[in-house]
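ok so for the tutorial part 2 we go from a plain amino acid sequence to predicted structure tokens. step 1 is just haveing the sequence, like this:
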Amino acid sequence: MNKISVIIPVLNEADNILNLLTHLKDNATRKNLAEIIVVDGGSTDSSQDIVNRIIANSSDLFKQIYSKKGRAKQMNAGAQEATGNILYFLHADSFPPKNYDRLIINEIKKGNAAGCFKMQFNHRHWWLYLVSWFTQFSWRACRGGDQSQFVTKQLFNEIGGFDERFIIYEDNDFINKLYARKEFTVIQETLISSSRAYIKNGIWKLQYHFLMIYIKKWFGASAEELHSYYKQHITT
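step 2 — the prediction. this is what the tokens look like for a chain of 236 residues:
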């Protein structure tokens, strides 16, 4: 029987994590979920306490584990803990559609071993609306970690998981590997993702720097070079 392990890397997400975990529980069928794993990378706010309170009320569904900081490291740690045969990696500020569990399992049954949802930002700026609109297509350039990623555990292990050298761009590196194997599909239901990084940095400024990171990687920049550029130009 197909079971989904939801894996959420977290660092100082006290403002979001309760709403997200409640959303995940309320919009899925319990029998389809192996567990929802929060992987904390060293939060200094109340994130860990909030998750522990949720676990106290639903210990059969939620788990919290601890990892070194870094989404790649945190997601790999979550995958090692997971008992489901399907891994679903989700950012802490992204909310998948109703019945996300059934939608993912249906794709697995069709033979699609990996994929994501199309996405909509929670901001109505025309550029973010346009960027979101393009996520419905299967083109590689339209992909990103904000859309979430599901993958069978078998395929995840075959690929070798996330490359922990990447402090940023780890999602894109992983997606590249899936596309290289022609193992990716886009579910035509909408995930809502936060635009907070665009608001904090400025929409045009952040889009420019994301483009530069994409270009630098295309021309062979190392994981360290990408991270250095990110730290220099982007506020988290």
